[in-house]
Amino acid sequence: MALSFIKKYIPFFLLALNLCLVLVDFTIRPISIDEPFSIYHAQFDVSQIIRHLLDGNNPPLFEIILHFWIKLFGISPISVRTLPALFACLCPVALYFFGKKNFSFAVGLSSSLLLSFSDLMLFYAHDCRVYSLFVLLTIASFYYFMELLRNPTLMPRILFVAYSVLLIYAHYFGLLVLCIQGFHILLHQRKRFLFFFLHYLIIGMLYAPYIIIVCTRLVATSSGSNWIKAPTNLIDLYYMLWAFSNAPVPTAMGIAAIGAFLIKEVLTKKMLPAKTKLVLAWFFIPFLGMFTVSFFMPMYLPRYLLFSIPAYYLSISIGVESLFATRAYRLIALLAILSAVGFSHHFRTKKDESFLLFLSVFNKAKPDQTLVLVNCGIEDVPLIAYHYNTAFFSFIKSGKAYHQTDSLLKNNNIYVNYTAINDSTRFDTLIYLGYVHKAQDDLPQLKEKYQLQKQTAIGSDFTEILFTKKK
After folding, report:
1. Mean pLDDT by 10-residue block, N- to C-terminus, for the chain (471 residues)?
2. Could you tell me the pTM of the whole model?
3. Residues 461, 439: Cα–Cα separation, whole Å
């Protein structure tokens, strides 16, 4: 009786736990990296959001949701980060229901707690990007996929289609999730192939406007330059598991649990349940498949594999449950892994000291007296505008991405790349701020017009260089 009462409130406990974990140092890290991209584009009308994102690798769902969120709560860091934080807090709750319904209470609870203490999930809970929503929709799609296998009534059918459509409008890698499910049908449910084919046909019809766009982006990505580095060797697999597990010790424990489980199943020649194979496919196909593809088309980044992290924790929990026949041993093993992950969890968010120092130096610059040159690409125009003047950041009346924002910055003598400067010689002084590695590329051109006076390191990543015009 007492246990059933406790189980009833587990989802609320998980939600409360994750809210507490996420709210610690919620805004200590400044808006940075790709966050301004999403925030900036979310300010446009919905039709313009869709149009502007057609040429990039970002389907529009998250920015559309963020668009309406911003209308209610504004663009402050705490406002825009609350949305992905809520999605992240719901992920362990959804994983608990998935694990409990398809495996056991222990699998559901332990995998959801592991996800709750994931440093990677915490980072993307504090990141105003699509990734926490992507994870949540992946779990939801798999949940209702399993429901369709058990109970093909109207509501699971509607919800499976709905969550799957939202998934692929959230991130293009959502298509890989649907492929994994499709392979599962071909291997284990061939008699119901037509039934599921009709559902995927509906999903495809609802996604029809983006099918050509996906193909175009795939060709462009494979043939163009890529800032992501290709894997070097098998050690990158270990580093990815390290990112999933927080630290080396829980990484080793996770490898041991899954490895021992698979070895045991091979040695005993037992046929794995189809649902277990589905979870393993959910983890291993992205983990190994994207690693292999990345030698030709680099994409092996933790954020792109984040949607497989719930399957990693499920695989660990399922493995432990299979390895130990005695409940006490299972409990000890699961507690050991949970303790390793929990104690290695960084409850305090890293401040990104280099970028904070960069912002401090940037805000002390006097653009009314000199030219301030920031050596970022045009994509970083919103990043600079957000921290300089949010009115500039939000000035989008022309409907052209970055056009008004970039013009307003230039009017204030702030340029966000070297090639944008037309008549820099009218300034007697120039302050160059930016990444150290980019400064080496720009210095020869700048020295043609200016005399280098002083160069100062800003943290480990940035530099400040003072120039004066040549006489």
Report:
1. 75 95 85 91 92 86 97 95 97 98 96 96 95 98 96 94 97 96 94 93 94 83 74 94 96 97 90 95 97 92 96 97 92 95 82 80 77 73 88 78 83 76 67 84 82 88 86 72
2. 0.93
3. 11
